[in-house]
Amino acid sequence: MMNLTLEQIYRAQHRLRGLVHRTPTIHSKTLSAHLGAPTYLKLECLQKTGSFKPRGAFNRMLEMSADERKRGVVAVSGGNHAQGVAYAAAELGIDAAICMPATTPRNYLDATRGYGADIVLCPDIRAAFAETARLEAEGRVLVHPFDDLHVAAGQGTVGLEILEDVPSVTRAYVSIGGGGFIAGVATAIRSIKPDVKIVGVETRGADAMAHSLAAGTLVELPAITSIARTLGAPKVSEFTYRVVRELVEEVVVVDDANAARALFFLLERTKILAEPASSCCLAAAESQRGRFTKDDSIVLVLCGGNVSTEDLAGYHGRFA
What we know:
The protein has 2 domains: 6-52 and 148-319, Rossmann fold (3-Layer(aba) Sandwich), CATH 3.40.50.1100; 54-142, Rossmann fold (3-Layer(aba) Sandwich), CATH 3.40.50.1100. The longest helix is centred in the middle third of the chain and has 17 residues, at 149-165. By secondary structure, the chain is an alpha/beta fold. It has helices at residues 6-16, 29-35, 53-62, 66-71, 80-92, 106-114, 125-137, 149-165, 180-192, 208-215, 238-247, 256-270, 276-287, 309-319, and strands at residues 25-27, 39-43, 73-76, 96-101, 118-122, 141-142, 171-175, 197-203, 250-254, 298-302. It is 48% helix and 15% strand. 55% of the residues are buried. Strands 1-2-10-7-8-9 form a 6-stranded mixed beta sheet, with helices on both faces. It has a 4-stranded parallel beta sheet with strand order 5-4-3-6. The protein contains 14 helices and 10 strands. Helix 3 (53-62) crosses helix 8 (149-165), helix 5 packs parallel to helix 6 and helix 8 (149-165) crosses helix 9.
């Protein structure tokens, strides 16, 4: 059984110094008034490559032996993990192949290629996972997007930074794709401050964790239909499912329309561009604002900001 520990996350934090940004956490008067409680934004959208993903990618690859590095790495991704792995691999001199669905937006493809990785385009995300397994069988080392302790430990360093910046935090809203990010953040925060409520957030059509929790077992989605493509893991893992059951207060599922409206609210009022996989955290907090008091300290983790201008225009036309 995979068990993530605070010690592993502290080790990752030490290892990652100088390789990734120590991103800011800012207080927002606008959002505090909007939600009725002091509210902070953890700006992981300002991380290298535009999302939290390099943290886990670096931590995983730094654990690899010299022989494993020579064999190269393989990953599967709808966008942000691809860029994180490509960037970390380039910085460490490791060859990287990334399997991506053909529907991946061009900005993700261009950025991933720009970091030096080879892209293998597949018909859909399931085919991308299958091709990843084939390349792993041929000798490449898998950098899994969420079902990996070293990856989750790297992502968990975000939780340590939140506690350093907002020691008064009472509620943290964290997006869920495959669950590695929230597993790391929840382990870090609740190991140090057990009373903090961690709220997981998914969008409808990319809500494998919520379906799994409701069923009491892992559920695979037939398709990812949400605009939040970077939350598009069709199935979570036993590891991430177990951590969410143990450490996460609840999982809130929001509609694409509310995630898009939250995106534009953040952009217009805070000047922060967050992709739907991030802005959904604001939408979830909005749905719960009646629960907050002036004694709360709310942290919204904006996990990424990789959204194309073309998609922004489309969201505005559909949801604004």
